[in-house]
């Protein structure tokens, strides 16, 4: 058996080799940590994106249901129409009269009667709904922004912007059949036939642009609001249809209310 060399002649690791080893180990650790962080963050961003998409779809479903449950009596006695306030910077305000619990909740005392709703979205307040009875709107001194009887609901802090456009009722269709959207609605006692809604959600990454969610909704009651004579003619036709030749009334099952007249739930 060969004897070991004296301790003074044994060769160990030099300081340079130790430093190189520690440097390579540190670089490998940083690479692994960076890869793990990137994968984790990518998973979190994907989850937040899916959550925001589902969240925006829910809010848009509520808006569409509320718009399609718009109420209009078919006369010009009060302002029952749609209001669009274009404030720029994707902070529009829309207001209309509706029935049903959508946006206001089933516990609202005025859910079953015509009531006005005002919808807005800002970075500070999020998606906000203010609601009040329609008959309060007839008072000249009534201010929906400062009246204690007006309910205010902050539905979502994620929604930081709202943009609304309406289909131009006077547009002339082009050869490509393009739609002409406008940013104002001046007919205070009428409802537009088609509305384009765009919600803006908080970005998942700092510095990114807000996420957009868009929906187009048609309002069947628009025709009645723009042509009030339809309401009276429909009522007269219904009365005539219910009479028998002998002067009595028929026992047929009543027809369903026109689309857009019945309350739509959430």
Account of the protein in words:
This protein has 266 residues and is α+β, with helices and mostly antiparallel strands. The protein has a domain at 50-170 and 178-226. It is built from 3 helices and 9 strands. The protein has helices at 15-68, 222-226, 229-241, and strands at 83-85, 93-98, 115-122, 126-133, 151-156, 159-167, 181-182, 194-201, 211-218. The strands form 2 sheets. Strands 1-2-3-4-5 form a 5-stranded antiparallel β-sheet, covered by helices on one side. A 4-stranded antiparallel β-sheet has the order 7-6-8-9, covered by helices on one side. A hairpin with a 3-residue loop joins β3 (115-122) and β4 (126-133). Mean pLDDT is 77; it is low at 232-266.
What is the structure about, briefly put?
By secondary structure, the protein is an alpha+beta fold. Helix content is about 25%, strand content about 20%.
- The fraction of residues in strands falls at 15-25%
Estimate the global geometry from the Cα principal axes: elongated
Q: Helix and strand string, N-terminal first?
A: HEEEEEEEEEHH
- Measured on Cα atoms, how large is the radius of gyration? 32 Å
Structural class: alpha+beta
**Spatial arrangement of strands, main beta sheet:** 1-2-3-4-5
Please provide the count of β strands: 9
The low-pLDDT segments are 232-266
The helix content, as a percent range, equals 25-40%
Mean pLDDT: 77
Number of helices: 3
Our measurement of the CA-to-CA distance between the termini, rounded to an integer number of angstroms, reads: 90 Å
């Amino acid at each position: 058996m060969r004897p070991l060399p004296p301790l003074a002649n044994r060769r160990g690791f030099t300081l340079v080799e130790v430093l190189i080893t520690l440097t390579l180990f540190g670089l490998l650790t940083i690479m692994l940590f960076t890869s793990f962080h990137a994968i984790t963050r990518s998973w979190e961003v994907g989850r937040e994106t899916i959550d925001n998409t589902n969240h925006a779809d829910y809010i848009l479903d509520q808006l569409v249901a509320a718009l399609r449950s718009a109420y209009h009596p078919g006369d010009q006695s009060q302002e029952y129409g749609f209001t669009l306030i274009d404030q720029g910077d994707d902070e529009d305000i829309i207001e209309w009269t509706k029935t049903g619990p959508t946006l206001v909740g089933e516990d609202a005392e005025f859910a079953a009667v015509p009531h006005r709703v005002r919808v807005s979205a800002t970075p500070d307040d999020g998606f906000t709904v203010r609601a009040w009875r329609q008959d309060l709107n007839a008072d000249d001194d009534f201010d929906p922004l400062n009246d204690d009887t007006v309910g205010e609901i902050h539905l979502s802090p994620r929604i930081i912007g709202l943009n609304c456009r309406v289909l131009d009722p006077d547009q002339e269709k082009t050869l490509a059949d393009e739609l002409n959207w406008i940013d104002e609605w001046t007919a205070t006692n009428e409802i537009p036939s088609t509305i384009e809604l765009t919600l803006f959600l908080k970005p998942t990454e700092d510095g990114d642009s807000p996420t957009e969610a868009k929906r187009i909704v048609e309002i069947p009651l628009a025709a009645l609001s723009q042509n009030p004579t339809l309401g009276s003619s429909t009522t007269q036709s219904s009365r005539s249809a219910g009479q028998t030749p002998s002067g009595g009334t028929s026992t047929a099952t009543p027809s369903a209310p026109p689309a857009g007249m019945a309350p739509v739930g959430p």
